[in-house]
Amino acid sequence: MTACGGQTQRIIPATMGSHFYVVISCKTPQCGIIGALKYLGPDIAVVEIGEMAPTGVWYQCGACQKKHRYELEEMRVEESDLPPPPGWKSGW
C-alpha cells in the first residue's frame, strides 16, 4: 500500500502481457477468419516458424467449417492480448 495525497491506495500489479501465436487466414472466399495453429507463449523473442513447424498442416476453420491445407509460407506469427482458452490445443 502507498500513501498518495493523504489517502492509502493498494497497488495491484497488472498482468497484461502479449501472447504470440502461429496463425493462418482461412482460404474460403468471404471467410478470411484468422485461425491459430500454435501458441508460442508470452513475450517471445524473434521466431522462425520453419524451425518448429511441419512443412504443411490441414486446418478446419471454426467459422465456415471448411478444411484447407496450409504450407509453411502461409503461416505467420501474430500477437494477441489474450492467452489461449482453457483446453485449447495447438495444431501440432
Structural account:
Strand 1 (2-4) and strand 2 (7-9) form a beta hairpin. Helix content is 0%, strand content 40%. It is globular, with a radius of gyration of 19 Å. The strands form 3 sheets. The protein has a 3-stranded antiparallel sheet with strand order 4-3-7, with no helix packed on it. The protein has a two-stranded antiparallel sheet with strand order 1-2. The protein has no helices and 7 strands. It is mostly beta strands. The chain has strands spanning 2-4, 7-9, 19-25, 34-42, 56-60, 67-71, 76-80. The chain has a domain at 18-43 and 50-79.
Query: N-to-C SSE series?
Result: EEEEEEE
Q: What is the percent of helical residues?
A: under 10%
Distinct helical segment count: 0
Name the strands of the widest sheet in spatial order. 4-3-7
Let me know the number of strands. 7
The radius of gyration over CA amounts to 19 Å
Distance between the termini: 45 Å
**Overall mean confidence score, pLDDT:** 79
Cα shape: globular
Structural category: mainly beta
Q: What about the largest sheet? A: 3 strands, antiparallel
Tell me the β content.
35-45%
Unreliable stretches (pLDDT < 50, length at least 5) are 1-5, 7-16
